[in-house]
Write a structure and sequence with these properties.
Elements (H helix, E strand, L loop, with lengths): L15 E2 L2 E2 L2 E3 L2 H8 L10 H13 L3 E4 L1 H13 L5 H12 L4 E3 L2 H13 L4 H12 L5 E3 L10 E3 L3
Helix pairs in contact: 1-2, 1-3, 4-5, 5-6
């Protein structure tokens, strides 16, 4: 039982190591951004927090988890608030995907969505939606979004 009440804790099948269950700690968008951004990208307004996040992720020996929503939010902030190019976002996300103690739910899906994002015109979240739907067996994803509809996994409705 955990702090959420009577619901038992559930762990995904990838949360095992050598057959033994391991504790996985989820990261929120604000924590992930503090870890991924450095002074060369954006001035640090809270260096003590940044140091704490970096030390925790790099030195704690824990395994951390970034879900698809946190990743999509992070990329949105990198593009729309920090002003990073698609190429820089790709480098940052690749660094995340190569981290030995940070897991994502769907690394292959994220890589496909990231590749489409770098080559395309739509937002990362659009490509992530499309790739998650492909993974779920969907033949297409309906959209009104003209930029997203350029990707083969989307079908534009009404046009």
């Amino acid at each position: 039982m955990d702090r959420r009440g009577s619901r038992p804790r559930r762990r995904a099948s990838w949360c095992t190591q050598g057959g033994a269950e391991i504790a996985v700690i989820g990261l929120d968008t604000n924590i992930l951004l503090r870890w991924l951004l450095d002074d060369s990208i954006v001035a640090d307004d809270a260096p003590a927090q940044t140091e704490l996040v970096s030390r925790t992720i790099l030195e704690s020996g824990e395994t951390f988890f970034v879900n698809d929503i946190v990743l999509a939010e992070t990329i949105w902030v990198l593009r729309n608030k920090v002003g990073q190019s698609r190429k820089v976002v790709e480098e940052i996300v690749n660094r995340l995907l190569c981290s030995v103690n940070v897991e994502t739910a769907n690394p292959a899906v994220v890589r496909r969505a990231l590749d489409a994002f770098v080559k395309g015109k739509a937002d990362f979240a659009d490509y992530l939606i499309a790739e998650l739907n492909v993974e779920a067996g969907c033949s297409t994803t309906l959209t009104f979004d003209g930029k997203a509809s350029l990707h083969p996994s989307f079908s534009r409705l009404g046009k």
